[in-house]
Write a structure and sequence with these properties.
The complex is a heterodimer of chains A (about 250) and B (about 250). Chain A is mainly alpha-helical and about 250 residues long. Chain A has 10 helices and no strands. Chain B has a 6-stranded mixed beta sheet, sandwiched between helices. Chain B has a 3-stranded antiparallel beta sheet with strand order 2-1-4, covered by helices on one side. Classes of the chains: A mainly alpha (about 250), B alpha/beta (about 250).
Chain lengths: ~250, ~250
């Protein structure tokens, strides 16, 4: 409890110092509002436009969470396939690598063409970005079960599915957890990229819109909200994972 | 049912670089402790791995037969205990003891009661205790209980007490001798004292490829007292043999 309070406190200090530095830079170089607004101005705008921003946060949050869900799900399933079936290893790994060699940014417009301006294209963008780190982390964990545990299970006449369920998967959970942490950090980026490329709502849309109208303070306010959203998501995920997976490998 | 002996016939085992055994033949008597001593790398653990059928690697050349004196299959009647306790950190003490039953999907309330009684007998009063909270000696006791709960007539032990301090080791000798009575035990060890306390028969494995020396059969019932004159006298002889074996490596 004390440690988590200290953690939050430390985070606040870091944010405040960065804001102070920012304010100082604007003040020293006499930058106009439309180049770099002060953090205070951004804060005022954020409060003044809170209902608008909150309204635009909801679709982005929904896309992020759905992307996270589907990305994690496909990642877990493909890691299990890789671990359990040799043909999957031979055929799926090239597909995985190719899927990551194509820049998400480049195919995001295509996804909008295929899946429309709605949430689906954003969810898919996020899913594509997320499933790879989840797959590699979990697959790595599944491959690194200590040999002694596998030998022991073998002398206990366990079949490979029992070994998978009772030993290999739990042993790989800490690795999966680090994959999920990376995924949680990536998910909002996926959703925002999707929104930039083409959308009619969401924080990414709000940013572009504000930018186009030279409402730079509002753009920063939206950016601030995205950052807050990402941080909140990351720390929630981190907390859940730390509570549920208490062992180290 | 009395525990069967194990007969090794013309065992040859070679890895890519070296030949460990060449036409090794011997018989381990049923219902007794057989202790195997020898320098590191001579093939003590490999012998246990062969009996437990743990080698699956393709780079291994293996020939010969291993059978039980009653001609029933061996691999289904083995419990295996290694130097690393292989306790699973996400399971508690009791659950770790019942790992075999869990893997085979046959946990019963009878088995649970058995586990608790055995845990009590080895001095572990809290079956729900987390593995991370146990000391090295306690962990090895849990591993011993796990081995016993497999309820197999043949027990293969690969330096199970090597990582423990001397006093803890002596205590565990007493426990092992008591609880593994009438089973066919093959105990690989580095420690001449351990072999002399627990072995009905002691062999020194020496040479490249390795051969078993003449058996040493100390008098008296096990566990022999550390102050017994036979032990002190034989310890010198055994150490001399081990020195010789070391020179042959």
């Amino acid at each position: 409890m004390i440690r988590s309070v200290a953690k939050i406190f430390r985070l606040l200090i870091v944010i405040l110092s960065l804001a102070l530095l920012w304010q100082l830079v604007v003040f020293m170089f006499k930058l106009p509002d439309y180049i770099l607004p002060t953090p205070l101005a951004v804060m005022y705008t954020w409060i003044a436009n809170f209902s608008l921003i909150w309204q635009q946060t909801q679709p982005t949050l929904a896309e992020t969470l759905l992307g996270l869900f589907f990305g994690a799900l496909t990642g877990i399933i493909s890691a299990l396939l890789l671990a359990m079936f040799k043909p999957a290893r031979l055929w799926l790994i090239p597909v995985l690598v190719i899927s990551q060699a194509i820049p998400t940014f480049a195919i995001a417009p295509l996804l909008v063409v295929w899946f429309g301006y709605g949430e689906a294209s954003k969810v898919i963008t996020a899913t594509i970005m997320i499933f790879f780190p989840v797959t590699t982390a979990f697959y790595d964990g599944l491959r690194r079960t200590p040999l002694a545990w596998l030998d022991l299970a073998k002398t206990m006449r366990a079949n490979r599915w029992a070994i998978l369920w009772h030993i290999r998967i739990p042993a790989a959970l800490p690795a999966l957890a680090s994959g999920l942490r990376v995924a949680t950090a990536l998910a909002p980026i996926g959703a925002i990229i999707g929104e930039w490329v083409g959308s009619s709502h969401g924080l990414g849309f709000l940013m572009l819109n504000a930018n186009g109208r030279m409402q730079i303070t509002l753009m920063f306010a939206a950016l601030f909200s995205i950052t807050m959203l990402s941080l909140a998501l990351y720390y929630t995920m981190d907390w859940i994972l730390n509570k549920t997976i208490t062992w180290k490998m | 049912m009395s525990a069967p002996g194990i007969i090794l016939n013309n065992i040859s085992l070679a890895f890519a670089q070296q030949t460990l055994f060449n036409n090794l033949s011997c018989e381990f008597t049923g219902g007794q402790f057989t202790c195997l001593l020898g320098p590191s790398g001579v093939g003590k653990s490999s012998l246990l791995h062969l009996i437990a059928d743990l080698y699956t690697h393709k780079s291994i050349q293996y020939s010969g037969t291993i059978r039980a004196t009653d001609n029933q299959p061996i691999q289904t009647r083995i419990a295996y205990m290694a130097q690393t306790d292989s306790l699973l950190p996400w399971l508690n003490t009791e659950q770790n003891c019942l790992l075999g039953s869990r893997l085979r999907g046959e946990i019963t309330s009878v088995k649970k009661i058995q586990a608790r009684e055995l845990l009590k007998r080895v001095g572990l009063k809290n079956p729900k205790q987390k593995i991370a909270e146990l000391s090295g000696g306690m962990r090895q006791r849990v591993a011993l209980v796990r081995t016993l709960l497999e309820d197999k007539p043949i027990v293969l032990m690969d330096e199970p007490f090597a990582a423990l301090d001397v006093i803890t080791r002596l205590n565990l000798h007493d426990l092992a001798a008591e609880l593994l009575q009438h089973k066919t035990v093959i105990l690989v060890t580095h420690d001449p004292l351990e072999a002399l306390r627990l072995g009905h028969v002691i062999y020194v494995l020496a040479g490249m490829p390795a051969q078993l020396g003449a058996p040493i059969i100390p008098a008296g019932t096990i566990p022999r007292a550390i102050t017994a004159p036979t032990i002190l006298q034989l310890q010198g002889e055994l150490l001399a043999r081990l020195q010789l074996a070391q020179e042959l490596m």
